[in-house]
Amino acid sequence: MRELTYSEAIREALVEEMRRDANVFLMGEDVGTFGGVWGVSHGMLDEFGPERVRDTPISEIAIVGAGLGAAMMGMRPVVEIMFGDFLMCAGDQIVNQVAKARFMSGGKADVPLTIRVTSGAPGSAAAQHSQSPESWFMNIPGIKIVAPALPADAKGLLKTAIRGEDPVLFFEHKMLYAEKGPVPDDADFTVPFGVASVVREGVDVTVVGVGNMVLKALKAAAQLAEQGIRVEVIDPRTLVPLDKETLIRSVQKTSRVVIAHEAHLRSGPAAEIAAVLAEEAIEYLDGPIVRVGAKNVPLPYSPILEQFVLPDVSDIVAAVASFWKR
Amino acid sequence: MPRTTIDLPYQVEHISILDEDGNLDHDLEPDLSEEFLLRLHRYMLLGRRFDERMLKLQRQGRIGTFAPIQGQEASQLGSVAALRDSDWMAPAFRESAAQLWRGQSMESFLLYYGGYFRGGEIPEGIRNLPVAIPVGTQILHAVGLGYAIKVHGQDDVAMVFFGDGATSEGDFHEAVNNAGVFKTPTIFVCQNNQYAISIPRSHQTQAKTLAQKALAYGVPGIQTDGNDILAVYVAAIEAVERARAGEGPTLIENVTYRLSVHTTADDPTRYRDEEEVAVWEKREPISRFQRYLKDKGMLTDNAITALEDEIKDEIAEAVDKAEERMETLKDEAITMFDHLYAERPAYLEEQRQAFAAHWEKA
Description:
- The complex is a heterodimer of chains A (about 325) and B (about 350).
- With about 325 residues, chain A is α/β, with parallel strands linked by helices.
- Chain A is built from 11 helices and 14 strands.
- Chain A has helices at about 5-20, 45-50, 60-70, 90-95, 100-105, 150-165, 215-225, 245-255, 270-280, 305-310, 315-320; strands spanning about 5, 25-30, 55, 75-80, 115-120, 145, 170-175, 180, 195-200, 205-210, 230-235, 240, 255-265, 290-295.
- In chain A, the strands form 3 sheets. Chain A has a 7-stranded mixed sheet, with helices on both faces. Chain A has a 5-stranded mixed sheet with strand order 9-11-10-13-14, with helices on both faces.
- Chain A is globular, with a radius of gyration of 19 Å.
- Chain B is an alpha/beta fold.
- Chain B has one domain (about 15-330): Rossmann fold (3-Layer(aba) Sandwich).
- Chain B is about 45% helix and about 10% strand.
- In chain B, helix 6 links the parallel strand 3 (about 160-165) and strand 4.
- In chain B, about 45% of the residues are buried.
- The interface between A and B is medium-sized, with 34 and 35 residues.
């Protein structure tokens, strides 16, 4: 299969869906002439024109709010928020409006709105441009939360988001944009929500990775294999809805689990995943559920300090190794 | 009569005193001392050269990303020149010349962009807030600064800087409206440098001016030729005097141009033409002001050369000093665990200890 970068895979999903359905359009800051600050919409203005690749003023709440309005009119807007940190500028629209529009309209309003947003630390972007806000929204009923790690999943999940009838927060990790992987060129290839992916099979320990940490978990698994530890790596792909069955099946086999994400450790996505496993699979576990995440301090600007605060391959290796040191 | 025109209390003026060709409006020319004018010139040049030096340091990997100010020296310095030391100033992220005028050291910028926590400190005795990186957030804070000044019965003012793009954020509108209602001594200075990353001013708003946005909130708005330091100063001093007299806030739009990149991570050739930049190069603020000072017999080419040398040495010394200081500050890295709450909570102790061990090894 041909290989694409994560960024190209996302662009391909956008382009294919915009060709397929005239109701799909892209809107956000610098997405047109500039091709997106992250380069994802590069060249799309030329094909679709400024009505469908809409540069906006710096108004995150207006971007999301207009997206909701257009979605309720039957369009399928994809809006881009440049940094996950800026979701807070649109916070009321996301939490109180987008997520509740169907509920508060007696189930009448479809909200086919996709909010594409970047997360994670791109390297020295400091405390207000580096956060991984996925779990901030996991407590809000009414919105789906997607965090693809591999290019094919990014393409397939984005198409599912655009074709679906519910609002989706679609988190793209900044450090994944240049990563390559095989991507089907079938225009109808989609990946369903709520189905985790077993990225690597193993029997000794399960490592659940979120976003960027899937790649780090694979690297950790390769290192641990040299010590004879067979790691199973699972990518939930969507945090809401969460595929509990695949996670439980894996820990039934391995009896040990590490959950890794780039978000701060406290109340990150792992808190929910760990709670689910504690509630529904504790009888299979031989030891504590171990979490790996960023330290509980804001991301420093200094690259040296940032490296310490962020979780890395070695943290996953150490977390896995801890099972044999107890 | 069913339809009448409502008489609105304000109109928008545009001030230009010293134009790009060096023509001077003698009636509007402010009466400023030679010492003050030369000081303004010195800081314009210092702001420009320090910016150029920081760009080189960034390219060499000695500091991180920052937002260059090139072309906006008049817009910044003419504004803060109207302040006194006890006033407050809230920058966005492209106001280094203004912050230097207010007494902040070059060293503090180098520490900040070098990733040292000390760079974020409000320097002792200097009433500048730290830079505000996300767009428009500081505009709201300036209303609170002004409110506190007012409640304390003082006659200081708070001046806040932001760009054309920030006027599209709700933060801006809510700030100006509240300042109007509370009648706070807040000066809103919009540096309209024509671009919000790639989005030109014409795509930011259909409004003819940004200054007029204040009118809807019952606050006066004025526009200046932001590359004319005399016009910028006149608008600023009038606003400051009104604020001190308890007459409330003003919005000033300085029309200027970002001659360089948005930040060091940007490539402006992707969205603007060389020809457009060339037009604004001709309107550039420093050479225009130098011509004015020469015409007044206050400045000579020799004096400029001498000043350039002096500034070069000053910057070199500041860079050396900052890099030496960076060495001594390395052990303060652990303070990232101490700067979260007034008292360090017990649950951070484990991560703090882990860092201490990690730092020891490194």
